[in-house]
Amino acid sequence: MSEIVIFRHAHAKSISETETGLDYDREISDRGIVEINDSVLKLISENFKPELVFCSLYKRAVQTAQKISELAGLELEKITVSNLLLPDAKLSETINMIKSIDKNSILVSHMPFVSEIVMNLTAKRILFLTSAWIRILIRNDKIEIISSNLIY
Amino acid sequence: MNDLELIKGIINEEFVDTELYRKEAELFEKKVIDGQRISFIFRKFSDDENVHILILKKLYKLNNYTIPHRKIIEYKKIRNVLRMHLIRETLSIKLYERMLVNANNLKEKRYIEAILESEKNHLLTIKRYLFFLK
Question: Hey, how many other C-beta atoms are within 10 angstroms of the C-beta on B45?
Fold first, then answer.
């Protein structure tokens, strides 16, 4: 049994603000930092204690994961960067990976991929604002939504 | 005022803010033209303040603390509402800054810093709204 939080990365700067002009290099904005604070505080207020954090390779996802870890008191070594959380990852492989996680974890990824993950796991169509999350309990084959923040 | 009194005082004020933002969100949604946006923001602020209460109770083992009932003055005009929040958020920031100085460990410091950032963001948003009202 494990609890998984599907987390959309925080608000990011525009492509024109990157040095390379690549979407991949977009960093989280000041607004994004505030968003993460509020979002993670809500998780902590629910007594959720993450043991691991997974994120995509994109800079904004990595920075979001780092901020989450910092606030949750997790060491940075607990962050795993995964190809399976990239926006164009193969959904079935990502789902298998999620189902194999046996520790309370936070997964940081992108829209619309986070919605597709949740749709696949819970059969619910959900839109994520930046720094939004949904907390899911995975017990054997049973999956249930426990709580959420800033989703539609 | 000792530390515990300060913390309880902050919890009481956070509760007032939670109630105020929630009620004002309802009011603005009905009475302000295109009020959905500000209503959404105020609902989120109300949720944020409630989260701050939960964090403080958890951090200082005050889960059984009962917030005393207090009559809350509600303003109906948006300018007055924003001015009142400007004052309340500024005071709140000062109190958290004081708490931060007294923080004893890393976890406490981390959480208070995060709440402080949240309150600063509330204040900034209120200032922006007030600016555009003028």
Answer: 26
